[in-house]
Design brief:
The complex is a heterodimer of chains A (132) and B (749). Chain A is α/β, with parallel strands linked by helices. Chain A has a single domain, classed as Rossmann fold, CATH 3.40.50.2000. Chain A has a four-stranded parallel β-sheet, with no helix packed on it. The model of chain A has no long low-confidence stretch (mean pLDDT 83). Chain B has 749 residues and is α/β, with parallel strands linked by helices. Chain B has four domains: 185 residues, Rossmann fold, CATH 3.40.50; 163 residues, Rossmann fold (3-Layer(aba) Sandwich); 160 residues, Rossmann fold (3-Layer(aba) Sandwich); 171 residues, Glycogen Phosphorylase B (Rossmann fold), CATH 3.40.50. In chain B, strands 1, 2, 3, 4, 5, 6 and 26 form a seven-stranded parallel β-sheet that branches. A seven-stranded parallel β-sheet of chain B has the order 15-14-13-16-17-18-19, sandwiched between helices. The longest helix of chain B has 19 residues. About 2% of the residues of chain B have low confidence. The chains are: A alpha/beta (132), B alpha/beta (749). Chains A and B meet through strand 3 and helix 4 of A and strand 15 and helix 16 of B.
Chain lengths: 132, 749
């Protein structure tokens, strides 16, 4: 286990889920409007047939991703983070979450629709806002 | 730092006499409006099994009459009364939320047993208390027996109180007839009660036969607290005049009221600290015969002899009505003089309690604890982690618990459920943990990642308890929990496992406690968990919504736009992700619609794709969660027999045709459906086996007389909801300070 915030796992290779040489494309869909995505996903999937595509979204409802039968990771919607500002230091958790996702998939390329991770992270409530 | 007058420090999970005495003590203390009382709950090492808090202590908490001090809070008190040395046998695993000006360590058990073996290391315990709670400690034995056990090694760095901290008992709660008609008629009914334990019995059958007048026609012997151990101890058959019944605390007063006399002898290896059972017998005015070792404690309230003299002594006394009556009054008088609950307050006076009005707690606003008892400005998180590959059942079960947590405990959900939004929509924070099947990943590297994901949640959220729900316990879960060995963790593990699930039993020890939600069909469950039931906390069936809290029938039918003459049938066939139902669904719909009264409400799983809308208004396709809320609208249902659906249909009083999902990785829905069918509580249709019976089974469901009879039977099912019990368990365990871990196990080098 890692022992400091935003530190990549000690043995990154041991945390990578990919066991073949397929290249990975990570598609960030943070805070994207749901209606705009489904068609986009299918179009992307068909263009990158030789790639493993991992979508990282923040939709509250996963149905569009499930129905499209794609691989996805989910980050909490900003609305949820704002509703629970005191649950933890969201910025710190997100930095660790991103580091782990990177280790987990080791993407060769990243494409961003909607907010970038950094823009998304910049909008999370700060610890000082916390109730507890 | 908040202040409070008095804090009882105890492992409140004990079932026995010590807890009962504490209940009496608390009740008496709470009669003083000037006294504020708190509880510091300790999880001591003695109870390894997942016992809940004693129900009567729990009631004080639920009613908000005592405040529970929780880890990471800061309190001070004038006096801490530590019940039982075992609670400080190890160092607490975290700083206590309390500092006390003075402390009394109540010894409920002799320091050495009858053979001289040391039962606890008092000097070390005193040191631990001094280091963690209070400098000014006094030791208070509960009886002369315990006091005597402290000699000859009287070398404790703390004074011993002059008076014993006796167990208390309210005589008003125990039946006593001051003027009975006379001495007993033969056969004289003698009895004894104790929890089932061989140490509470004479060592040999010969001794027991003498003390308990085996096969003596002049006596009937009633035993409350028997069990298989008794036959193991003495061999079979037991004497013909012994009437043996299992132990039950609630049945004690009634049991004692039926006796003429009380006889108690125990093993030579046992040292009875106080003998609450004896005290209860005396309170009922029973002529009581004891081993001479008790004479120091009970004086003339009882008679003392060897086992061989019990019969002659009782017969001689019974022949003298005046002597018999006098002995009864001496017994009752002793309890009134020595055990009156008023002593609970009297013995606090040397410690300056109750405090003069305006001091300590009353100055700081700690009085007037509103129920529920956990009301804090500093909320703490309970992390619910669940599996759920194809449905939403485990997540729903966790929401049932979360909804019943007191304010101040914030539930957060980390789940593999693809319908996690149902928790988010109820305002809960949620975290998605994708299952390896949805990532096209191998299980081994995925478990390594899962461990990191849960580890991150634990270190950032710092929950006070982790509740896991699922049949499969993944390596990633256990690896993450190993990193936080002091974290309270529970595994809510349903029954009805298939054999393929058996390896997951090996992970029981990963968790602090295993809780098994009740199964109405549990008697038919012969799966792998059955043998583990004695090691789990069993609760009634868990429902997300209490049946009584549902929308009333008229409103629910308006909600669905149903007319009075409609026969509303709910169709709930699950996600279909791992069990093909499409063809059967079509046939059932066709057969149902053949009845012109029928309107089908096809409630589609949050995970299943919505079918195309039908071309008839009598088939309405809905996606609703939780659909149980409006289920009073239904006249019947066709449903899978997953845990939640099964118990909701039955406990909701809905005649149901169950179609079990028989996919091999599922729990045994078939057993549930077969049980309901056999009991006349529902119908069964196996998707592959019973297709030829479809018409007649659906016809039976549509038969008005069948449904009426079925509803009558369903109305007789018990209406408890285990979600409440689990929520209380979570609340209490998350407040406990752990002293149950041995230093050699938890200070890694």
């Amino acid at each position: 286990m890692r022992n400091s915030i935003a530190q990549s796992p000690p043995n990154v290779e041991s945390l990578c889920l990919r066991t073949d040489k397929t290249r990975c494309l990570m598609v960030w869909l943070l805070e994207l409007q749901k209606n705009a995505t489904a068609e986009e996903l299918i179009r992307l999937s068909s263009r990158f047939k030789t790639w493993k595509i991992v979508f990282v979204h923040s939709f509250p409802n996963f149905s569009p991703m499930v129905e499209a039968r794609v691989i996805f990771e989910a980050l909490p919607p900003l609305a949820m983070l704002r509703a629970h500002p005191g649950l933890c230091d969201w910025s710190a958790w997100l930095q660790d979450r991103r580091a782990l996702l990177m280790s987990k998939w080791s993407p060769e390329k990243e494409i961003c629709y909607g907010l970038s991770f950094n823009d998304y992270a910049a909008l999370v409530p700060k610890r000082a806002d916390a109730v507890h | 730092m908040r202040s409070i007058d008095l804090v009882l420090v105890l492992d409140a999970r004990f079932e026995g006499g010590a807890s009962t005495a504490v209940v009496t003590e608390i009740a008496a203390l709470l009669e003083d409006p000037d006294l504020t009382v708190g509880l510091l709950l300790i999880k001591a090492h003695l109870l390894g099994l997942p016992f809940p808090v004693h129900p009567q202590i729990r009631r004080f908490i639920t009613e908000g009459r005592v405040v529970v001090l929780r880890p990471h809070e800061a309190w001070q008190c004038r006096l801490a009364v530590i019940h039982h040395p075992v609670v400080f046998e190890n160092m607490p695993r975290t700083a206590l939320p309390l500092r006390a000006e003075q402390a009394v360590l109540v010894l409920h058990h002799p320091m050495r047993d009858a053979s001289g073996a040391l039962q606890y290391d008092l000097p070390v315990i005193v040191q631990t208390i001094r280091a963690s709670l209070c400098d000014d400690i006094r030791i208070a034995p509960v009886s002369a027996v315990v006091r005597k056990s402290l000699w000859p090694e009287w070398r404790f760095d703390a004074p011993v109180t002059d008076i014993d901290w006796k167990n208390l008992l309210d005589p008003r709660e125990w039946p006593f007839d001051p003027e009975p008609k006379g001495p007993p008629l033969e056969p004289i009914i003698i009895g004894r009660h104790a929890r089932p334990d061989p140490l509470k019995w004479p060592d040999t059958r010969e001794e027991a036969a003498l003390a308990y007048l085996a096969d003596n026609p002049r006596f009937e012997v009633r035993i409350l607290g028997g069990g298989p151990f008794l036959e193991e101890l003495y061999g079979t058959p037991l004497p013909a005049n012994w009437v043996v019944t299992p132990f039950g605390y609630d049945t004690v007063p009634g049991f004692l009221a039926g006796l003429d006399a009380y006889v108690y002898f125990h093993s030579s290896r046992w040292s009875e600290a106080f003998g609450r059972n004896i005290m209860e017998a005396l309170a009922c005015g029973l002529v009581t015969v004891l081993a001479p070792v008790f004479s120091r404690e009970f004086g003339d309230a009882a008679l003392y002899c060897t086992p061989s003299d019990v019969g002659p002594m009782l017969l001689e006394l019974a022949a003298d009505p005046e002597a018999w009556a006098a002995q009864r009054h001496r017994a009752r008088l002793w309890v009134e003089r020595h055990c009156d609950p008023a002593f609970a307050r009297d013995r606090l006076r040397p410690f300056g309690l109750p405090a003069p009005s305006g001091s300590m707690a009353s100055n700081t606003g700690a009085t007037g604890f509103a129920a529920p008892a956990v009301q804090r400005e500093t909320s703490k998180t309970v992390l619910f982690v669940s599996t759920n590959g194809i449905g939403v059942g485990h997540l729903t079960q966790q929401m049932a618990i979360a909804d019943r947590l007191p304010q101040g405990l914030v539930p957060a959900f980390a789940s593999m459920c693809l319908s996690l939004h149902v928790a988010a929509e109820q305002g809960h924070p949620v975290f998605y943990l994708p299952h390896h099947k949805h990532l096209e990943a191998e299980s081994e590297p995925w478990n390594r990642v899962l461990a990191e994901e849960i580890f991150d949640l634990l270190r950032h959220l710092r929950p006070v308890l982790l509740a896991y729900d699922g049949t499969a316990v993944f390596g990633g879960v256990t690896a993450a929990l190993r990193e936080f060995p002091d974290l309270m963790s529970i595994w809510v593990r349903r029954a009805m496992w298939r054999e393929c699930h058996r390896p997951f039993l090996d992970h029981e020890s990963t968790f602090t406690a295993v809780i098994e939600p009740g199964e109405l069909a549990g008697d038919l469950d012969h799966g792998p968990t059955r043998a583990r039931r004695p090691f789990a906390y069993l609760v009634p069936p868990v429902l997300h919504i209490d049946p009584a809290a549902r929308m009333d029938r008229a409103a629910a039918r308006r909600h669905y736009g149903l007319e009075d003459d409609h026969l509303a049938i709910a169709l709930q066939l699950g996600s279909g992700a791992n069990f093909e139902m499409r063809s059967l669904r079509r046939k059932i719909i066709q057969r149902l619609l053949a009845d012109p009264r029928v309107v089908i409400l096809d409630i589609v799983s949050p995970l299943a794709p919505l079918p195309e809308q039908a071309d008839t208004p009598r088939l309405r396709i809905l996606r609703e969660f939780p659909s149980f809320l409006t289920s009073r609208a239904m006249d019947a249902a066709v449903s899978v027999a997953g845990y939640n659906a099964f118990h909701e249909q039955l406990l909701g009083g809905i005649p149901t045709l169950f179609i079990p999902n028989e996919a091999p990785e599922m729990d045994s829905q078939l057993t549930r459906a077969q049980w309901a069918n056999a009991c006349g509580l529902g119908l069964i249709l196996r998707a592959r086996h019973d297709i030829g019976a479809l018409d007649q089974t659906v016809a039976r469901l549509l038969d008005d007389d069948f449904r009426a009879a079925c509803k009558d039977r369903l109305a007789g099912l018990p209406q408890e909801n285990g979600a409440r019990d689990i929520a209380e368990f979570v609340t209490d365990y998350s407040a406990m300070i752990r002293t149950d871990r041995w230093p050699e196990d938890i200070y890694p080098r």
